[in-house]
Amino acid sequence: RVEKKVRLEDMARDFHYSKNRLIQVFKEAYGLTPYAYVKSQKLRLARQYLTDTGLSVGEIASRLSFADAQYFADCFKAETGLTPTAYRAERTQPAE
Fold first, then answer.
1. How far apart are CA 11 and CA 27, in angstroms?
2. What gap in Å lies between CA 95 and CA 50, rounded to an integer?
3. Which of 12, 31, 34, 84 is least surrounded by CB atoms within 10 angstroms?
């Protein structure tokens, strides 16, 4: 479900927990909040899209249900230290 918009309320309902209990269980299991976990999974998939497809940054942002391309780029840079465009360029340059 990483490509879909994920809501905490829906996750809590799916797991039969309150929102607070779900956050607690997630933190114990993964060391992250559900939001941080889902975002990290979306960004993992974004890295794959950037290296393996010709999708634009905007298309990737939309496919991964980010609010907009700028928010996606900000999140991506915060996690990787690179903009999505720079990441793609770095990963797709031919070896010399």
1. 14
2. 18
3. 31
